[in-house]
Amino acid sequence: MSSDGSTVTFRRVPGSLRRGAIERFAHKLQAGVARGRGFDCLVTSDGELRRLNREFRGKDVPTDVLSFPSEGGRLGDIAISLGRARAQARQFGHTTEQEIQILLLHGVLHLLGMDHETDRGRMARAEKRWRAVLGLPDGLIERVRS
Questions:
Q1: Per-domain residue ranges of the chain
Q2: Helix H or strand E segment including 103
Q3: pTM: predicted TM-score of the whole model, two decimal places
Q4: CATH code given to domain 7-139
Q5: What is the pLDDT of residues 45-70, one digit of tens each?
């Protein structure tokens, strides 16, 4: 893991994804949303996300994105399910790359301490604002509300 920049690690690099574009997007998030603070992201299997969700949140179900805040200068770590990202991209009519970007943004906002379940819309407003700036389709919070 990186000491100051943000990294994106793929367990298996899918040929259909432009890895460099996702890495550049992570750096954009670091510079803008995270105000220069680095984070690390792991794009992995649905099974690994389910295991992490069970281990750290006590929920034995697969999920699309998890965030693990850290103390100090770095924001923390994000884990994204590639399988979920692909399925959600098909469901919502955009690319897997865009879905990973949506999940990355959502994860970074969680690392910044936002929680859409308890913050009376603060995270939803921030996510909507950043999606507009970054040119992303509807995010996770809007989908749940629709």
A1: 7-139
A2: helix 96-111
A3: 0.89
A4: 3.40.390.30
A5: 999 999 999 999 999 999 999 999 99
